[in-house]
């Protein structure tokens, strides 16, 4: 049985505690994080890594051009996200390592 749109909508806290912003299930990158689940996006990320996943995903940028997400991220941010979102807990970045990552020292 397929969930209704209302059931798929998860609310996450916004930066303003009195407000909530809707998070649509359709926008979430994967449907299942089970090792042999049905979600092709999660499997792709687990097998090929964060950089390959971001290279495959496309976004529209200012001016209307469509580029890969990887093109919009700094190499330092990709490295940080790769460490934080590692599927294998043994290789996942610790909080201490993440907070000391070079991306936090980058100037905009």
Automatic annotation (TrEMBL):
This is Protein kinase domain-containing protein. InterPro entries: Kinase-like_dom_sf (IPR011009). The lineage of its organism: Eukaryota, Sar, Alveolata, Dinophyceae, Suessiales.
């Amino acid at each position: 049985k397929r969930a209704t749109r209302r059931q798929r909508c998860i609310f996450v806290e916004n930066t303003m505690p009195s407000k909530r912003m809707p998070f649509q299930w359709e926008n979430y990158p994967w449907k299942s994080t089970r090792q042999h689940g049905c979600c092709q996006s999660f499997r792709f990320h687990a097998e090929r890594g964060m950089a390959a996943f971001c290279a495959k995903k496309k976004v529209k940028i200012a001016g209307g051009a469509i580029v890969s997400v990887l093109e919009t991220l700094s190499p330092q941010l990709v490295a940080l996200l790769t460490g934080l979102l590692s599927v294998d807990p043994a290789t996942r970045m610790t909080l201490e390592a993440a907070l000391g990552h070079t991306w936090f020292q980058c100037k905009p």
